[in-house]
Design a protein that fits this description.
This protein has 102 residues and is of the alpha+beta class. The protein has a single domain, classed as Single Sheet (Ubiquitin Ligase Nedd4, Chain: W), CATH 2.20.70. Helix content is 36%, strand content 20%. Strands 1-4 form a two-stranded antiparallel sheet. A two-stranded antiparallel sheet has the order 2-3. A hairpin with a 4-residue loop joins strand 2 and strand 3. The protein starts with 6 loop residues before the first strand and ends with a helix. 3% of the residues are buried. Belongs to the NAC-beta family. Pfam families: NAC. InterPro entries: BTF3, NAC_A/B_dom_sf, Nas_poly-pep-assoc_cplx_dom. This is Transcription factor BTF3.
Amino acid sequence: MIKDDGSVIHFNNPKTQASLAANTFAITGHGENKQITDMLPGILSQLGPEGITQLKRLANTVANAGGIGKIVPEDEEDVPDLVENFDEASKAEVAKKEENKN
């Protein structure tokens, strides 16, 4: 997936799930943030008209800014840190439901 800032979320071995009734799709797997320049030219065949337009816009932005390093800060992180253990919360919820049944 190409983001507006010119970086790409790359899934090396993605798994997909779909719920057509809910019009919902999920891509799971290990995602890596990469610069679009690292992915070229391999992704050119995968880009549609919208992606090519976005790539042209990015190229113009990079040319005007004098380099990609000025556009995207290296310390920026889009993925939030996991702060809770969801497995424990799920187990507690199941135990609570079982207690209510008894």
